[in-house]
Amino acid sequence: MRMDSLSRLRRSTAKIGLATMFFICCSSMHAQVELDTENTVREIFAVEAAFQQMTENEGIAGAFRFFAADDAVLNRENILIKGKDAIYNYYDKERFEHVRVTWTPENVEVSKSEDLAFSYGRYQWIMTDDQGREQQLTGIYMTVWRRQENGEWRYIWD
After folding, report:
1. Which of 32, 73, 121, 152 could form a disulfide with 105 if both were Cys (CB 3.0 to 4.6 A apart)?
2. Strand partners, 142
3. What residue spans define the domains of the chain?
4. What are the pLDDT tens digits along the chain (158 aa)?
């Protein structure tokens, strides 16, 4: 009888030990996923900043083409503009030559697989009219980002 109780105690202790190890492993894996997601969120904020900086340095058309995935889609004036070249052609117009755009991402969410993300925030288009007066158009944007095979982030929807 005593041997039977001792055997049950050892099995119970072993089960508790295994359960504890499983819990610890799962907790550390969860913490690692959260850490990786936080790094990915920072990547998206950095890509947003680089994107905006490129609009200032190299122009809107070039920046929107550079950061677009090959299959990117823009929704502008209730029209879908599909593909990098069409996006470039949309912005490569005289009406955008003296226009600036700024935006501030307020939030970034990342998929568990960390290959998709979206950001949203406030934007401001600043343009000069024919009389030299500055006009501003403000709103809220949302951009969907996809990690490319080379690890870079490109938008697929804006």
Report:
1. 121
2. 120
3. 2-157
4. 454 554 554 555 544 544 444 444 444 334 444 558 899 999 999 999 999 999 999 999 999 999 999 999 999 999 999 999 999 999 999 889 889 999 999 999 999 999 999 999 999 999 988 888 999 999 999 999 999 999 999 999 99
